[in-house]
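User: Please fill in residues for this 83-position structure.
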């Protein structure tokens, strides 16, 4: 039962990135990884893969933004459970 619950929680959702589709007429791909944390809380990590060429600087800034959001969510979860 627990294994089935984790299999359901680790679902990948595929969707079109409409903002960049209209700008570049090329589709982007976005999927989220849902991780179950303590007491049923979930951490959602969003990965975005763009099919159009991007510069290193742009890619680094986007990745640092996502990792910053993930780090903030994770630290807030820890603070909730410590109090």
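Assistant: Residues filled in for all 83 positions:
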């Amino acid at each position: 039962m627990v294994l089935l619950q984790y299999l359901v929680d680790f679902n990948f959702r595929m969707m079109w990135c409409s903002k960049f589709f209209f700008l570049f007429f090329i589709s982007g791909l976005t999927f989220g990884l849902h991780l179950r944390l303590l007491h049923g809380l979930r951490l959602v990590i969003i990965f975005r893969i763009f099919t159009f060429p991007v510069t290193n600087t742009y890619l680094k800034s986007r990745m640092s933004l996502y990792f910053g959001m993930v780090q903030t969510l994770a630290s807030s979860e820890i603070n909730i459970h410590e109090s």
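For context: The chain has three helices and three strands.
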